Amino acid sequence: MAKFFISIFFVTNTFITISAQDLTTSFRYIDSLITADQFEKADWLLDSIQRIPYIARHEWYRVELDILKGDLCLGKNNYIESIKHYRSILTKAHPADTASALKFAKALNDLGIAYYHTSKPDSAKNVHHRSIEIYRSYGDQQGLAYNYNNLAIIAKDLKEIDKALNYYQKSSDAARSINDSLGFGFIALNLGVLCYDNKREIEAIEYFYEALEIFTALGKDTRANSVKTRLGKAYLRLNVFNSARSILNQAREYFTIHKEYWHLSHVYIYLSDMFIAQNQPDSAIYFLNSALECSGQMNDKTVSGQIYYRFGKVFEIKEDLDSAHYYFERSLNGFAGTHLDGEMISRLALAKLLLARGEFERAIRESEKVRAMANGNLGSRHEEVAYTILYEANKALGNNLKAFRNLEALQSVKDSLFNKEKALEVARIEYGNYLETREAEQKAEREKLKLAYQQDLNEQRWVKRFAIACFLSLVIILSCWYRSHRLKKRDNAYLARKNSIIEAANNELRALREKDRINQLREKALMNKSIATKERELAAIVMVNHEKNTILCNIDQRLAEMIEMVEDDTKIGLKELKRLVSSNLNLGESWNSFIHQFVTVHPNFFESLKKLNPDLTLHDLKLCAYLKIGMDNKNIAQVTYVAPDSVKKSITRLRKKLKLNQQQNIRHFVMHLDN
């Protein structure tokens, strides 16, 4: 209905009358197009619908139109344009009815997403909190879960870890209250990412396993294997290489089968990281080549930059500095303008390489450029590398004051890094203890199961004896049953033979009956054929009599005219000839002859007509007889010496006398009467 309605006023560009229901239906249809990513069609429809005068007179429809435009831009990842459209709702109070209010709250949530992607976290937080107030007033837990999850992402980016954890917990509570398993899975995944980013690897692994369990149960296989990729990264950071290899290979197998090249390329990258950490460059090169092949299917510069960076690290291990320099340059080209962190670590690696090659000034420029790009947000590990390069390069160039300042900064970073390394080592120890504890628990569980099995074994001894007794009883019962079965089988065979004899007799009887039926059908067909032949003969006789009588009438009339014209002697002969002609012109005898032959073919026809209507005249009976033998109106008119219109009127009167309705065909009725 919406397609038809919209197409009318889009073609004319004017619309005289439109109901609110029709407009609401149209908005709903456009929203479905945006959800289905049919952006071009939705954009065209929105531009057309904006020209309706009815929209300008109703404030809420203008707001709803702005929301749809914002949704369209957000779907296209055009965040700046989406903010322009969503911004109109900031000065409005939310509507009173539930559906419109929830739509208003969703628009605020989407506006927060747009603010976040345009680096306006404060504005994003404000609109998310306003959306939360509306969702809470209407008890919509789904909307609360979405907003709290978005606030957690913002807090994580602002390094407000406690706030992020708090928001994730609120999002989790909201999702749990409505049994939103999928939403809870995403929350567990985000919590795992948050813990991983903040060096809380054990908690991250626990959250990742929780998300993996949920996604697997819901059949979200792609998402589940994506979580396995993150688990592999966490295991790599803890140097638990066997677990990392096992779970990454599971993800690799799935993504290879389903040709998920983006995910597959990252799995290969993490597998190469594992071999780089184990100082196995040749194995790392194998997986990096596989990752490069996958990235070629996507044309993703960021993924290519990550791969080339690791190629540089591999050749740095192999002490092939020229190849390492080449790949670090290529990684810079891949990260440029798309991935700031990647560009910074590639420049640091390049600066470190330049330092090793004695190009101190270039090494200093690259390091300073990285610090400027980081704007104070460079990680401790990368800060250590940057200050080390600056210290060594300035020292080599004789810039002692700068070298001393960089050495102080380096020492400060090392102290901080020592604490983080210590924390990571503690995490590894804790994870080792966790594995030992889990192994001890599993061992205790195995001992418990072994003890329970032994108890079951002891309890089952009497069961075996009982089973032997039951077996012997069963053998006796089966023997008796087998003997009974043999007797029954013999009786059944006798009955089957008897039934086969009876069935053969019945088949023979059915064959005889079928033969009689066929003979009857043949006789009936022959009889019908004979009747049809006789009816044709009757019609021919009628027409021959008619022709004969017509000729005789013409001769009689001509003789009468000639008698008046000739002399008296000749008149006597002509009169004698006229009497002879008149004696042969006997219409009554022709009819009687026809009736005699007609009754021979259809003996009960006139009796059946009389039963239907005893008041039928001789003319009516004649008309029915002519219809019975298949004569048309023209032939009937000729043999009865009347006009065809008179025959039609006679047939109409006959229909009324026979009490036929308008749907009944009188010819068909008469033809099948007394058959």
Automatic annotation (TrEMBL):
Transmembrane segments: none
Superkingdom of the source species: Bacteria
Name of one Pfam family that matches: TPR_12
UniProt main location, coarse: cytoplasm
Keywords, ordered alphabetically: Coiled coil, Cytoplasm, Repeat, TPR repeat
Protein family: Belongs to the Rap family.
Protein name as it appears in the record: Tetratricopeptide repeat protein
Taxonomic classification: Bacteria, Pseudomonadati, Bacteroidota, Cytophagia, Cytophagales
